[in-house]
Amino acid sequence: ESSLKVTGIDFLKSQNTRQHHTDGYNIKNLVVRRGQPFQVQVSLNRELRPADKLSLRFGIGENPLKIRGSLLSLKPEREDFNGWKISIVEKNGKECLLSVTSSPNAPVGKYNLHVKTGTNIYKPENGVIYLLFNPWCEDDVVYMANEAQKKEYVLNDTGYIYVGSAYNIYDRPWNFGQFEEFVLDACMYLLDKSKLSLAERRDPANVSRAMSALVNANDDNGVLLGSWSGNYIGGTSPMDWIGSVTILQKYYKTKKPVRYGQCWVFAGVLNTVMRCLGVPCRCVSTFDSAHDTEENLRVDIYLNEKGEKLNISFDSVWNFHVWNDAWMKRTDLPNGFDGWQAIDSTPQEQSQGRFQCGPCPVKAVREGDVYLPYDSKFVYAEVNADRVYWLVRKVNGKEKYFKIATETQDIGKKISTKAVGQNRREDITHEYKYPEGSKEERMSMQRAYSFIRPSGLVPRSGYASTVQALSGNTLPMVLNEPVSKTGLHIEINNTEPLHPGNPLELAITVKISTPGNWTVDLTGSCQLQYYTGKVQANLGTTKETINLEGPSEMQIPLKIAPDTYMKTLSSVEDEVLILVTAIAEVRETKDKLTKETSMRFEYPPITVQMPETAKLYNDFNCAFIFKNKLNVTLENCKLLVEGLGIFKMTTFEQGDIMPGRIMKSEIICTPTRLGEKKIVAKLISNQIKGISTEKAIFIT
């Protein structure tokens, strides 16, 4: 009697991947999602008989063992094993069609499939199956009901990251590219590297926390090395990336950290990794984000007598900071904290001995429940700290600090992400915070303050020893600013477009709403700063005394000549922002007010010329055109372009582009995937770092 042997196995890849929404992955192997059936066709040397023993064996890890749960042996029509089930769909002669359903909380990762018949074991080629989280399965903790949201947060491989400043936000196109070659393998490598146990791999909370640690290179040789030094020799400047694909491919190939990242790069890569593994994820940008080193909910800003900001603080306000929200049920927490969870892979502060952050329930931040894991105090402070301004004055040769203002509504503004299914910014501040001044906000703040022990109101710079005792060093429950007696108000704006090479024409408007004659001393300064709040150059100051007959307003101009700032602009490798700070004091009432605004330079656009549609595998032409409308030569121009499913990342060296000159570059494109695809382009030069654009084309 011939023993039963397997002669072949068909993984029915096109049918399975369509049903599992995994047909996008550029990989030979079968990729499926947990908790959902997939089929395999087994060919045998003879017909299957009732007495035959046939089992599918799924093994995960180096040395799979049944006792450890890393080897699953599934027999048709038997009771399920660890929540997995297998059944015979149909028998047709020597062919046998089987259906396999993994458990909706199975560990994610790579499984080796062997088929056992009696004592024979058949090992198919490409027998490794990739098992991912499943937002389409109601029993998976990452389940997301809304179809359009899944399309955006799991399947969209392009998007935007919002940067700039609260005064002018702009979108930076980013290619996530979670389906590109080697990206899934890079994510699987990170999972193995994370040393998560099999049980821990079941839960996206553990997986997302581990990935937030592994996307930065600190303490684990992870994907990206962060640098804010302004000098990126020996690597790629953070401004020069336009997507995650090159980074993850390079990391997977070399297994060494890729140089260099800053927050939006970390967030872009973490977004790719989470979407790739099947966890819905979005990039979240917070403007005026507090980076507070002691969880005391206060950021100290030091100004000199000219109103210029000094780089002496241990804490800082970043013009923007980007992290991620991942979607999941939190089975480890009390009810009410499911949904979006903040995770952050920018290395800022250690959590449990590693540079990792989250998952922190966004609802916990809103409700002030900052005792919940993970890192909720840190995330709460990023969006809720107060900004305290100190004036540093030399008195008898010693530096003394005078508190001049407290801003309670300045931090954590315009929290932004890309809208679902649309190319626009969606403001999600209300998911993180109750409206300023509402009853709910006060209750949430009181709750948060009961878990955070704020220190007294003394400045925290390295010069703390020279501090004057400030009236009773205790912080009230909620910092209430005394309402000014004169209704003093300051506005800062630009009166002309901020083009590099032109004078910066700025204006400070002082308003007083109370009747009477008032004398106002105004100090204003203009500086260049990094998005991290670090001052790069002082450009100019103004000091005016103005008389106002209230209620009225007066505009004070502040003009900066191009040669004051162009040298700094060309010598740094990062994008810099224009920071304007104003201090106003009413002599009669001693009312003081401080206001700061960050603005970005404005640039001429890149235009993309190409057809609106194209046919699969049919070449089309794409041209990138840029006219230098500025009054300065742009030196060492590089054009970076990438189109997922169309062409790989390409760099054009353009040399110098004189004022008025037009640059044109062309590329021949061959689309390899159907549907809407995007081409992203970015131009960088010594003088400007941030011109980018994108254009969509529909492939039929």
From TrEMBL:
Sorted UniProt keywords: Acyltransferase, Calcium, Metal-binding, Transferase
Source domain of life: Eukaryota
Record-listed Ca(2+) binding positions: 384, 386, 436, 441
Residues spanning the signal sequence: none
Active-site residues, as the UniProt record annotates them: 263, 321, 344
The Transglutaminase-like domain, residue ranges: 255-347
Enzyme class: transferase
Gene Ontology MF terms: metal ion binding; protein-glutamine gamma-glutamyltransferase activity
Keyword Acetylation: no
EC number: 2.3.2.13
Cofactor(s) needed by this chain: Ca(2+)
Record InterPro entries: Ig-like_fold, Ig_E-set, Papain-like_cys_pep_sf, Transglutaminase, Transglutaminase-like, Transglutaminase-like_sf, Transglutaminase_animal, Transglutaminase_AS
UniProt KW Transmembrane keyword: no
Entry's cofactor comment: Binds 1 Ca(2+) ion per subunit.
Pfam family, one: Transglut_core
Family: Belongs to the transglutaminase superfamily. Transglutaminase family.
Name recorded for this polypeptide: protein-glutamine gamma-glutamyltransferase
Organism listed in the record: Hippolais icterina (icterine warbler)
Lineage start: Eukaryota, Metazoa, Chordata, Craniata, Vertebrata
Gene (name only): Tgm4
